[in-house]
Amino acid sequence: MEAGSLESETIAEIERLELSARQLRPRVESTRRPEERAVLERQLVDLRGQISRLRERLNPRPSRLVPFKD
Description:
The protein is an all-alpha fold. The chain has one domain (3-58). The protein is 74% helix and 0% strand.
């Protein structure tokens, strides 16, 4: 696999995870049950961790990505 293709796939995966995190945030904020909120917050933390790890793989070219904010 070419480096450019791998980079493109990594960027696409980051974008997919960022979208998932953005969609999860309103659910976390609107949940009333503490147990459910804890589960959703853990999922959000996991997504952020995955995004961070993938961004670290792209470290030589971080400028192509906009910082993630959910």
